[in-house]
Specification:
By secondary structure, the protein is an alpha/beta fold. The chain has helices at residues 20-31, 61-64, 90-105, 119-126, 133-141, 169-172, 175-193, 218-232, 249-252, 263-274, 309-324; strands at residues 9-12, 37-41, 52-55, 69-73, 111-114, 147-151, 156-159, 199-203, 236-241, 257-260, 279-283, 289-292. Substrate binds at residues 133-134, 271, 280, 289.
Amino acid sequence: MNRAQPAPIALTCGEPAGIGPELAVKVWAALKDELNFFLIGDPAHLPAGAPVSLVASPDEVPGVIADGLPVLAHRFPAPATPGQADPANAQGVIDVIARAVDLATTGMAGAVCTLPIHKKALKDGAGFGFPGHTEYLAHLAGVERVVMMLASERLRVVPATIHIALRDVPDALTPALLRQTIEITRAGLVAQFGIADPRLAVAGLNPHAGEGGAMGDEELTWMIPLLDEMRREGVDLLGPLPADTMFHAAARARYDAAICAYHDQALIPIKTLDFDRGVNVTLGLPFIRTSPDHGTAFDIAGTGQANPSSTIEALKMAWRMAGATP
């Protein structure tokens, strides 16, 4: 490791009763010779016998990562019982995220990679007032609007609306929101993925993209005019496209990222195509943030069955992005 490399990546512990502790150890074994990262969490929550290197600061990580998982200790009030979230640990999970953001914004960490949280557990145990990780990170950063991208080698997708009820999507998906989503996505692809002139595909809101107004008129009344206006501004756009025909292999070859109207319209395709290797990237933050594209998996927590592929990819992507950031 040399001085030209970025600062170590901060990996947050996530829900300690989920698969996060097991994943942290597995990704250390896979990546200890490839990149620098450290876990923020309680070392007592890690699997018994896990090799641990306690650190007091991220700058100690390069010197100890070969010997054990570097852990910046953040003590929790209760032990972790696999599969059973303890409300007593909820505030600790939240505080770890805030601690990682502070390290990233001060340059001590090159990026933040977050292991899965359990939103209901955080709400029940600490009154967590955010729909998910993404919204909380935006709050911590003081950013009004961010974009959640799910990325893999096969597909990049962005939901314009995220954690809201489906019945609320038509009102929430406004021309201003869609424009901002496209602009942030395009800027992120240029700055963080090295794509000079991104090609973006935009999904329609309605089945068959409204089919000429027969199944909804949002495409006709404002989506088509908006996309035409942005094309005139130099943005390379396809759409609005029927969502049911834009994710097969030949269609995916025509664009670098797909902008979708709502959460499941975006996440179902990527989780079907590449469930274990999808990475969540938050665009629009003043620091780099990635995470694995799965949840806490309480049903297999503590069994040794957790697949580390997505977390490995999330750390690798964070490391590459951190290295490309001035």
